[in-house]
Design brief:
Rossmann fold; five-stranded parallel β-sheet
Length: 120
Amino acid sequence: MYTLVIAHSSGCRKLIVRNLTIRGHLAVGVSTLSEARELLQRALPRLIVICEVAETPDRDVAEVRENPQLASVPVLVVSAEVPGPRWLDKWNVASFLPTSAGVPELIRLMEPWLPSGAAP
């Protein structure tokens, strides 16, 4: 299984994918969910990370949550705009991290969904 990283910002997408990959985890980065359509038909991700550096990613989260195939896949949101508890509940977001946090904190938040025994 893999982690799907959806980020309009190529910098954010590459940073997350690279850090997961060097830790031995399979990660796929796309700028939109539609870019992953073919991949999603073959295998569902273990985790979806949505990174939006400018605002709360309503459109991306809605697109994921409106897809019945992805309803049970946990979503972690990384955003400059801090969403409130109602927003997190509305979209059933498993976890949130501000973009100001570092990579170690992001990896720590992902750990419950990453396979154990990957390379350190």
